[in-house]
């Protein structure tokens, strides 16, 4: 009889582990379970083809006894659920080991949340051994667990054997350029994962090159978060170059990477070729007006990008206007949302956006604006409301000033008429309204188009 069969028989003979009631489970989880020495790894049932007959609760409690850890009460409370959330619980490597032993043959848990648990590389090894056999877990969160290089190596080995996980979060694990090589190589071979979070790590230029090769060859990842790294210059260029040939990536998050003109120019070139990306997050970088112009070379012809995030960049209203004009002029542009919420725009931007909304009402642009611009831009609505209250149309107002029927009214005459009628507009608002009607500053208002 091999070791695994002995353990299964021992499990079935244990008098102290019958099927437990909820009250009994609550009593057990309040104190440590003693009596067995901790296992050194998860291979106690190697060579066994029979799935243990014990319940998940019983397997977990036995594992806690062997590892000498207190059972995690949140895990016991969530038994029977597909989503297990143990974020910020402080399991540590041995606590994770007990969990891994219990979940090795589980078929019910599909989402495992273990963020901020001090997993470290040792705990990562236990989890990865478990995931080489578990076939039910689809989503795994291991963010902020100090996994470092050794943890990255364990994860990469698991990714080469596990084709069930669809989403993995590895944010904030001190992964550097050495660690990312192992991960990138594994992602190149694994076509089943479609969401990867590698944000808040320490990737630099070399790491960007590895990731660029991964992006170019991977055919499964749809969402990739690389925010809060240090991928710049040649690394960023290599990473972005992968977009030119990538056929699956739909969302790319690159905020807080220090991107400037060089990276914006590369992105502009990539967007000319890419036909899959729908969301690009470039917020909190170093993209100024010149960089925006370089980025717009790609936006001018791109047909798929729908969401562009550029808040917290040093661009001004000039860059914002360039961006808006580019999107509007691209008749095949799919852009629906632009976030430049930290940019203070001018009147020209507001007017152009109003015109754009007539043709593309779904276009949502988040921007900032000074009070004076807001007040001035409301002048037209104030004028229209004033006429409506007098049961007068705009055509009536202009026709009364157009004695010769030329469909033109001198701007000076319009100013005097507005003041004489006591329209509630201040001097700046009136000046703005005149510019609105006489865009070319000819001194005459051609009111035909305003009276339709």
Brief characterization of the structure:
Helix content is 45%, strand content 11%.
Structure commentary:
It is a single chain. The chain is α/β, with parallel strands linked by helices. The chain has 19 helices and 13 strands. The protein has helices spanning 3-13, 22-28, 56-67, 73-77, 92-103, 120-131, 148-161, 177-189, 205-217, 233-241, 261-273, 289-299, 317-329, 347-359, 371-377, 379-389, 394-399, 411-420, 427-437; strands at 83-85, 111-113, 139-141, 167-169, 195-197, 223-225, 251-253, 279-281, 307-309, 337-345, 364-369, 408-410, 444-446. An eleven-stranded parallel beta sheet has the order 1-2-3-4-5-6-7-8-9-10-11. The chain has a two-stranded antiparallel sheet with strand order 12-13. Helix 13 links the parallel strand 9 (307-309) and strand 10. Helix 6 packs parallel to helix 7, helix 10 packs parallel to helix 11 and helix 12 (289-299) packs parallel to helix 13. The longest helix has 14 residues, at 148-161. The radius of gyration is 32 Å and the shape is elongated. Residues 1-21, 24-40 and 45-50 have low confidence and may be disordered.
């Amino acid at each position: 009889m091999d070791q695994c069969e002995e353990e299964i028989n021992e499990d079935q003979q244990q008098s102290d582990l019958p099927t437990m009631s909820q009250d009994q489970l609550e009593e057990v989880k309040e104190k440590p379970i003693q009596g067995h020495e901790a296992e050194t790894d998860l291979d106690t049932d190697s060579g066994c083809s029979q799935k243990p007959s014990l319940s998940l609760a019983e397997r977990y409690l036995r594992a806690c006894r062997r590892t000498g850890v207190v059972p995690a009460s949140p895990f016991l409370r969530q038994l029977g659920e597909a989503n297990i959330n143990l974020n910020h619980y402080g399991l540590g490597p041995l606590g994770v080991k007990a969990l891994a032993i219990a979940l090795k043959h589980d078929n019910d848990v599909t989402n495992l949340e273990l963020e901020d648990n001090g997993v470290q590389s040792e705990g990562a090894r236990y989890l990865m051994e478990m995931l080489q056999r578990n076939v039910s877990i689809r989503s795994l969160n291991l963010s902020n667990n100090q996994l470092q290089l050794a943890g990255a190596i364990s994860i990469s080995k698991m990714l080469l054997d596990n084709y069930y996980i669809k989403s993995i979060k590895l944010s904030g694990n001190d992964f550097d350029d050495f660690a990312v090589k192992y991960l990138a190589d594994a992602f190149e071979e694994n076509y089943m994962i479609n969401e990867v979070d590698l944000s808040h790590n320490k990737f630099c230029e070399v790491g960007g090159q590895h990731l660029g090769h991964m992006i170019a060859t991977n055919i499964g990842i749809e969402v990739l978060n690389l925010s809060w790294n240090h991928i710049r210059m040649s690394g960023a260029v290599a990473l972005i170059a992968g977009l030119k040939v990538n056929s699956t990536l739909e969302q790319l998050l690159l905020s807080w990477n220090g991107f400037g003109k060089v990276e914006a120019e590369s992105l502009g070139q990539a967007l000319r070729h890419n036909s899959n990306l729908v969301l690009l997050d470039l917020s909190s970088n170093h993209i100024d007006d010149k960089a925006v112009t370089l980025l717009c070379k790609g936006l001018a012809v791109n047909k798929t990008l729908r969401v562009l995030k550029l808040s917290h960049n040093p661009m001004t209203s000039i860059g914002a206007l360039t961006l808006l004009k580019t999107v509007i002029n691209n008749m095949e542009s799919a852009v629906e949302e632009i976030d430049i919420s930290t940019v203070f725009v001018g009147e020209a931007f507001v007017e152009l956006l109003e015109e754009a909304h007539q043709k593309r009402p779904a276009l949502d642009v988040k921007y900032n604006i000074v009070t004076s611009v807001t007040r001035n831009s409301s002048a037209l609505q104030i004028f229209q409301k004033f006429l409506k209250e007098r049961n007068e149309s705009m055509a009536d107002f202009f026709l009364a000033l157009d004695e010769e029927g030329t469909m033109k009214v001198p701007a000076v005459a319009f100013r005097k008429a507005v003041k004489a009628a006591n329209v509630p507009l201040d001097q700046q608002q009136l000046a703005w309204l005149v510019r609105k009607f006489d865009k070319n500053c000819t001194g005459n208002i051609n009111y035909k188009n305003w009276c339709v």
